[in-house]
User: Fold this.
Amino acid sequence: MTYAGKILLTASALALSTGAALAQDTTVIGVSIPAATHGWAGGMNFHAQQTVARLEETYPQLDFVLATASNAAEQVNDIEDMVATRNIAALVVLPFESEPLTGPVQALSQAGTWITVVDRGLSVEGIEDLYVAGDNPGFGRVAGEYFTEAMPDGGQIVVLRGIPTTIDNERLAGFEGAIEGSGIEILAAEHGNWNRDDSFTVMQDFLSRYPNIDAVWASDDDMAVGAMAAIDAAGREDIQFVLGGAGMKEMIQRTMEGDAMVPANVTYPPAMIATAIEMTAVGMVSNAPVSGQFTIGSVLITQENAERFYYPDSPF
Amino acid sequence: MTDTAATAPARPSRRLPPMSVLGPVLALIILIAVGAMLNPNFLSYANISNVLSRSAFIGIIAVGMTFVITAGGLDLSVGSMAAFIAGLMILVMNAALPSLGVGLPVILLGIATALVAGLVAGLINGLLITRAGIEAFIVTLGAMGIYRSLVTWLADGGTLSLAFELRTFYRPVYYGGIMGVSWPIIVFIAVVILGEIFMSRGVFGRHVAATGASLEVAHYSNVNTNRVRLITYVVLGLLVGVATIMYVPRLGSASSTTGLLWELEAIAAVIIGGTVLKGGFGRVWGTVIGVLILSLIENILNLTDLVSPYLNGAVQGVIIILAVILQREGKTGK
Assistant:
């Protein structure tokens, strides 16, 4: 057991002995998520706050603690604090990174706390009671399938990748698998880090490097915004479309309005945190079984169904 | 070139500039040669214009940073400050749009907002450092966190976007220009020329260097060191405002990822250019070379398949260290 784990166990034992009397009336659910450092995380924070506010009204016997962390160490501290001061009965966690969070969450699980893990899995299997996950290989595959459909005769594309992570690798692998043998050639793939400015720079350089590019898989809507600004500025007519991802409201709107440059989108909903909190709450207040794995599939958004995915109030 | 190689090590000649001057220039020339060899489009007008325009943000900030570092200071807050000012500018312009309408007044209001915000932010940093006597590292580290959080809060965790009509109107400030030279490049050149004049021709530059070399000696030599240091931070803040004015029309948005790590890029550019990190000696033109080296590395890596994209950061790190070794060689030799 790790050092942090030991501290956590001691802390939870202490909290159990002192807080038992208090905890009888209300059940406390802890929610620990990364801070809003980029568009997607911003949307996720928004949905987490909304869900917590709604559920606290629906279930008076439930109480929520929501903490946002800007790095893994801070997240571990947040969870320790929740255990020590609020005696949480369940934890919904979207791990900042898998490795550093595995020990502390495992200790909590062994102490009997219900664990819901969202999006990023932990390094050891079987810790969590419920796993709500996005489908990263599926995200790439759906995008790849769209390319094979939109470009039946093949073509040359460039790819903007995210921050170097497992998520990014799985997406690219899914994409490459889907376009295999279709005649679509990836000229180059560089990291735009899910960031508008970085993808703008990378796209400008791609445009200097290749006189003909048929389409761009930007793999994220923030990166699509940067890439399209670079294409506009260069005045290039050869690029038929840019496919982003994750469903930013401005991009969904353009798809809805039939913009030829943004013909589609692939979901990777930040609202999956809402699914996780909701299911955990249901598990706490009812007999409905909620343990297991729940994968939220990535679906293709086109002009026909775009309206269903348009959330004008969300910051993302 | 062969002359230099033959005579420089043998006998330090008055006609030849020392290695500390030649080093960064040589590194830049080598990079340009490598780039031109690897990709024929490297020297094309479009690529050079792209690279220079995008260097302008860091470049304008780095000129201000040269003064701060020469005076013995440091500012880690410039990246988040730029993000915060960009966010503020967008909010103010969007708010004024209904009453002022699309046109020059709104843009001028935005520009004024950026300059005033930069000035005030620089003043706060400078006053805390000179009047309250807190370490520059701590003050600006704190400010870095504050501005980054503020922009995240202003944007509600998402992205602040300029109203669409305004974006179209304001866009030429980044993409337009005179005779094919875009505005960011023109402003960058103007800032560099002014900076160079102040640093190497005026009394102010001598006071800045004296302050950085030794606070005590400068003080007894009748230099108002507190005022000199305060001015360097205010100038830097103002230049961050100028850089933001150029940045906002590019994508018309600001978020918590805007200006990430700009402070480190600016500091690296200053040091590559030959300014001494602990103060006392600064070179504005060297900073320009430093900025160009940094953006060219990134550009060349994007234009070729030389290394795995995972290693981009490593290549940058190696070249930064090499560029500095190249100029230090000469110094120890003398």
Summary: Chain A has ten helices and twelve strands. Chain A has two domains: 3-128, 136-266. The domain at 136-266 of chain A is CATH 3.40.50.2300 (Rossmann fold). Chain A has a mean pLDDT of 86.
